[in-house]
Specification:
With 1531 residues, the chain is mainly β. The protein contains nine helices and 91 strands. Strands 80, 82, 83, 85, 88, 90 and 91 form a seven-stranded antiparallel sheet that branches. Strands 1, 3, 4, 6, 9 and 11 form a six-stranded antiparallel sheet that branches. 34% of the residues are buried.
Length: 1531
Amino acid sequence: MIFNRGGAVVCLIMFLTIVAHGKRRIGGERLKCDFEEDMCRIKQDKTDDGRWIRWNGDGQISKLETPSNQLNNNDTGYFMHAYASGISRLLSPQYPSVGAGGPKCLTFWYNIFGSRRSGTLSIYQSLNETYFGQPIWQITGDMGNVWRPIEIDLTSDHSFRIVFEADREMRDISISIDNILISDNVCPGGMYSLDPKLTCDFENEQLCGYVQDLSDDLDWKRYSAQDGASGDGPDEDHTFGEDYGFYICMNQQRTPKLPGHRSRVISPVFNTSSDDDDHCIKFWYFLSGYEVGEINVYMYYGDTLETMFNVGDDQSDIWHRAYFPVPPNVESFKIGFESVRGQGDGVHCIDDVEIIDGTCETLLTTAAPVITTPELLIDNANCDFETDCIDMYTNQYFGESDITSGENAYDKWLTSHSNSHYGRYLPSKDHTLGTTAGHYMHPSRNYNNKIVSLRTPMMYQRNHTKCLQFYFTLNDQYSTAHLNVYIDDSASAGMPTDPVWTKYTSSAYSEWTLAEIDILPTGGDFSVIFNAVTGSGNGVDVAIDDIVFLDQECSSVTIAPWISTIDCDFESEDLCGYTNAFSENWIRINGSTPSKDTGPHDDHTTNTAQGHYMYMESSPPNFHGSRARLVSPYINYVDGPMCLQFWYNMNGEDIGSLNVYRHNPSSSSLWYMSGNQGPEWKLAKVDVNFLRTSYSGDKTYVDFDFQVAFDSTLGKGYRGDIAIDDVKLLNQDCNSVQPQARKSIDCDAEAGIDECGFTSDPRYRSWMYFDYKSSEETIKTAKFPPSLMSEYNSFLYCDQISYNSHTLLVSPPVMPAPEHCLTFSYIIKGANLRVSVKKKASEYMDIIALKKELSPLWRSIQIPMIVNTTDSFTVMFKGEYSSYHNFVALDDIKVMPGRCPDAIPVEKLACDFEKDCRFVVSDAEDYAWQISNKDVHNRLLPSYDHTFGTPSGHYFFISFGRNYHGEDRRLLRTPLVKQTGSKRCLQFYFYMDSYKTNMLNVYVEDASLGRLHGDPIWRTYGRSVDASQWIKASVDIMPTEEDFSVVFEPIPKPYQEAAIAIDDVIILRQKCSKVIEQEWKSTVDCDFEKNNCGYSVPKDKGKYPRDFQWQKNAGMTKTYDTGPNTDHTFELSDAKEGNYMYIETSPPRKPGEVAILESPLVLPINTSVCLEFWYNMFGEDTGTLEVYRSQPAMPSYTGYKLLWRKQGQRSKRWLKAEVPLNTNYKDGHRDFIEHTSKIHFKGTVGYGYKGDIAIDDIKLVLKSCEPPPKPRDPPPVNKTICDFENGANECGFQDFGEEGSGAEWNYFNASSVKFDPTIENDDPRVNMSKGKKSFIFADASELRAGEHVIIMTPTVAANNNYCLVFSYVATNDFIINIYSRKDSGEENFINQLTGEDVLSWTTKAVHVPPHAEPFNIVFEGVIGREDDGFLALDDIQVQDGECPTGAPEVTDSVRGIADDLKDEPTQDKSQSTVSTVVIALLTITLLVAFAFVIFLVLVVKGYRKRLSSSNSIITESGKESGKKPSNSENP
């Protein structure tokens, strides 16, 4: 019974194993995964670059749009998305070969789209995990944001796995997969097609089996409108009507392309065996261009080649449907599409080929319209050919006698627009819209002797006369063409005999002309036929548009009064005909917008929460830079003014911009506003149809219909909702009401143009408003210098003034007074600014003319004005074109009654030229003093200013050419300074060429004299100074009785190039001998409590690339289990929650993205400066934090230096860092940097969202924080031995635990415990020590994921080979990195060891190659994500010479640690592992065989028992034989 039971157990186990294995497959499915619960045994490939994520499309994980999963009508369903750039792979389970019963078919759905063709999805049938071979399926580039299916037949003689590989070369491509099915069934076929029987939409790169005919001249090629490769081809495919859809065209790139060249593509064989006897082939073609050629379609069946379809000449740039029947009794055939090139350029394209059961007439069968009233028929005949009304009009054919070629597909009327009518005499614009995008009707060809007729639908005629109106053009250079109009009543058959209206070609009809025809009562239904006769020439063209039937006689038709078509308060759901033009939409809403602190609370119409308005939502999925465009219905033009009025709300600190365009179909900007405009609704007025004013004063308006477009662009955050309401169009000038005169004007432009009362003359280019709070958005549309972005002020500006044009800003009226003082700040670059006063309608008084300057720096000017008038006047600022890339800006405009202020106090004269100090330059056409900027390049001038020592800093300079002879003095004057009764010290810095500049003079000019008088108070000669640096000058100014100015006069050598620069001019209170140098102070100390202390993003993104920004936060960050819980400043305070700066690493952030925080300038000082700050790097996905020193005045390769770096998770607590800031080492000597510098904190995102990095409490301290020099006594050794028996520090090893982190090595002292080998101990350290071994260790339970423990050997001598021998224990998720480190900080990798599952000592020998300088060996332990494991080190030896060849690795879990490598040989670990596996397999095999034998014995025994019981007589021999089984029961 023992053996019976044992055998039964074995059998039961085998049976359950077989059942469990078989249960994996149900219904022929090996794998069916929709990713709703998990990844279904599909795993990530750990050797690739990127990562797939299981995602449901909820939220925005990147700047790129990603698909929503709607395969199962589930918007929240999950799919797999290739998240990171580079190559990402998914591996299926392993399957047996197809011949051995493996799967035969793979099906799945995919989505791949983006703005560039830079992504590839590949499928491999891989035999192993390291070599994938060639892909069995692959697709590259944008396929549109739609899910597409695919099926792939699997064939393999070996076991395999399926590999899904996404290659995202750029970040703007999205790749996703879903609904994977790997089955044992053969692929059914046709899954990709719209109709499995026969449909090809050419979305598949395999072209549905279509192949090129190799006997032709050219090829067909697959295109999409998005790639632009099809030239003037379709704007979208026919299948989807989108630019990402595909079709095939004659190859546009192939050369040579000659007239008559042919290209053919042939379909696969199609079988039409079905219950239907009739079949029809339908397809869509595109044939556009002058003398484009033709398209032929052939059918191949049996030995027959039959032409089934032909079309030629320009068919306009739209898709046309075509069809032909399959000949009777043809069951198997191929289709050939042939394009024949004509004399001109053009496009031949095909899309959506389909076979249909039934006759072709079924395609033309449509249900008859239900007529309810006769009046409806008359209205439906009206048509502008922009809408579906064209479907009611039909081409009429009357036989061979009227149309020479009969009912041919290309002798007919077509609807088209005028973008591509090569060689035709058709209108350039339609009549309805007056644009190139509008449509009209014209004959398909303009060859001679062609007659084409267009018939309206049947209409009901009452018993009174109707008026038919339409517009036409008629061009014919031979004057033989004409256009006829016939009335056909219901009783007529064929073409009526006499036309009711006829016009022959004439130059008078080259433009759109109105035709009016009275239609007399017919007593029944009727239709109208437009009959075009093309005449005898080849240059004949006819067009018609805007057909209207009016219920009155034509003589009584009057012009209707002008009515606005765009007035709207948005209370109706139809939006008054307004439509959204972009994918991001304007939204109709009532009450407040969803986001807090932005948008209006009520509408403007009713001022209640129930009223409606339109707005653009700034929260995700919309993002910074997203645009929405709301387009009005068309406005019928009038020869007079139109004023657009609307109310807008731009409330929120993240507001972007709002533009108003005149759209037709190109856009002209009419009005612009940006930035936070407050919570109230504000009124805007725009002259929408004004064009220009002639020299005679006559105004010109646009002479075409147009639309108004409201264009909203989002700012940088979610508090940026923009709203509009109550749009109204008035038939009057917006400036018809004049504002009241003011006593004074004081405009700082902080509230915009309108709030100050200024207006931009609509005759010229508009002035615009720049709001610094939304500067990042406005800089995209405003072409002003980026240096202005640092100024915290708003201003008025105009840019890109065109040639022979200008811009005019007009102040509100000012009341008269005896005298006024005009002050304003300005910037001019590449333009001129003229200021004048307009007293009456035609009286002007010039004030000042300011010419173009090179420097984009604000300058202020003060001008006294005496305006002799008793009426109010206006001040006008006129910007004039001077050169390309021009720009004019104005700010702080004041017009005050009374005299201008007097001279400034002497102590107020202090100028670093970073802002305007009202220095005065002597008037000169050339060689004038001017402000520097980084675009000024002169080898004789300094590359940086003195104030900040940066190229972005400013100074005053003058440069001379060889043709300057010194005829005029080039003077630079300070503002007028009040007289002083005591000595004052004048200080300034100058820079001059020592050889070519003769001298620099400084004068004190008496204001009462109005000119230079006397000798200079200071002078220097070029030969006496050092030309390579800024030089400080000091001179006493003696007491004066009058106000004065300081004057700088440069004197160059004749006929020489020369330059002089001035910076940091100041007059001090005391005389020069008593001036004390200013004490150095830190400019970067910051705790981020009140503000950011001047920390910002570097402006030069090209020099300092970054992807996102640091942000301020209080408390915990947004993501759980990463970042600090509080700031460092008030960490221990319960009264306040302080602020810190951090990088948020959650989506849409991606691994490797960078954020840089830049400090203010640090002034140079000749002593050590230490940068102190606190940082927090907590989270298992933490990336890198680096500190760089940037010297703007130095080249990037020498002026940008890494000072400090930490990587990975450090601690949950704040840690302190001290970094030497201003020291350099050269040739072993220390010196201090001479130029100003900035500090860059660079944060890099790790490989997950748990990687927030924070900094706080930054401070500069005058001290040295450089690490003390490492002891060199004794000198570096060639051999190091440490067994840690006397402690961790006795051998000279250094433990580098971070301050406050707790991430340090621990020491186990074996002498402190009593070891008894007969007693089991729960402490692994005791068992590992065996009672005699001390060691150092780290326990993962005391650390956090990602933390490091580091220990470093004493210094090792250079130029020698070494063998590093050590014993270690590393379990579970621990990793040991071993590398060398030099004094310079350079590190070189040596080896890496990973954790094992066994707690045992292993002795390792590693070769260390020679180093050029002394170094240390570093052991770094890193805990992974599991927070589990144990790490220990012991018996570390650095032996001289290379390691012995074949030195074994010793593992000892029983005997203890091997003392050295010369102990008794031990079996190699890998060999031992292999042996163990082999023995185990043999044992299992023997057990299975033995169980099978027992099973057979039991079967035989049972059979014989049944045999013996069936016999009634048992013989003696039978009894003996029956005993044999019982004898074997207990072997």
